[in-house]
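Annex B.
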Amino acid sequence: MSYDLVDGKVVSPEGCELNVAHHCNLGCASCSHLSPVFRRSLIAPETAARDLSLLARSFRARFVKVLGGEPLLHPELVPLLGLVRDSGIAPHTTVCTNGMLLPRMRDDFWAAVDEVEISVYPDRELPEEKMAGVRAYAEKHGVRLTLAYYSHFRYSYAERGTGDDGLVRHIYDTCQIAHVWRCHTLYEGHFFKCPQSVFLPQVLGDGGDPMADGLRLSDAPDFPARLLAYLRSPEPLRACRNCLGSAGLRMPHQQRTRRDFRELQDHTSEELTDRRFLRLLDERPDADDGCAVEDRDAWRERLAERPPGAPAASARAGAARSAPHTGAGRSAPSDESGASGGHAPSTRYAQGKRS
Ligand code: SF4
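Radical SAM protein: predicted structure tokens.
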């Protein structure tokens, strides 16, 4: 299904995303929003109100996802959820979180949201008694709870990128984030095709305009047509030169510090691309990336099967490094592809970002 122009508005079959806290209380390796190295910052409600109201004039979607970083770190999350709902962009509001702070949330939060997606990581799971409290609040307010259990990530980007235009185009063409899940992102007065094109230029800092991949929001009469053209464009974004889209190598989940997060991806795109999965995506654009499951028992089995020597989930500084820093001894990470080719709608942030 593609985008339509209905009554002067672009209609998306999926959603759009609002990042409200750019930092996180976890440090997942290869987080696709680069939260472990992004500056600590919160969206101002005035900025959110301005952008949501401008976008609402030209765009409709099935849902709006409120995420980050970790969205529950925003002290004004409840008013922000009210702004999202009142904007009328979508009839459904979802908060994507790692869940660690959910036990603190009270009735006002649960009343303001339709769905909560929890990304559960190894050794970062709420104790059952706290989950019972979360479930009770969700049930009381009729909120849908969705859990995705992660055992693996895929590398989300390569520090050194690539000069191979063919590879850039292949990664862009098969990118589930932009074309299947359509994680379009509202950020600082701009509409971006994907979160990676927001955060990669800011972290890598190549000296260019960090907003170059986005479309400036406007209330001009021709904006819906320009938005439609932007969304349908076959041209890769500037960020695709470093981004791995959906085809980064698969690796066991691990936590990283702010200091060593970037070392892990200090490689070329060629070194970090899972060519087998890239080819599979040619045939099956919605292929399962093999990073998460919805069933907890299946997750525990996956974790138990991890190869000897795989980094412990809780390893931080000094952890076994699959990608040593620069220099002659630098070795390419190994491919631990486990993609099944099935369909797993809950794994749409499998580069380590869903919350
Ligand atoms: S930067 Fe390119 S490859 Fe990466 S998520 Fe965006 S569109 Fe996909």
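The pocket of iron/sulfur cluster is lined by residues 171-172, 175, 177-178, 193-194, 196-197, 237, 239-240, 243, 245 (CB under 6 Å). Residues 309-329, 340-355 have pLDDT under 50 and may be disordered. Further annotation is deferred to the next reporting cycle.
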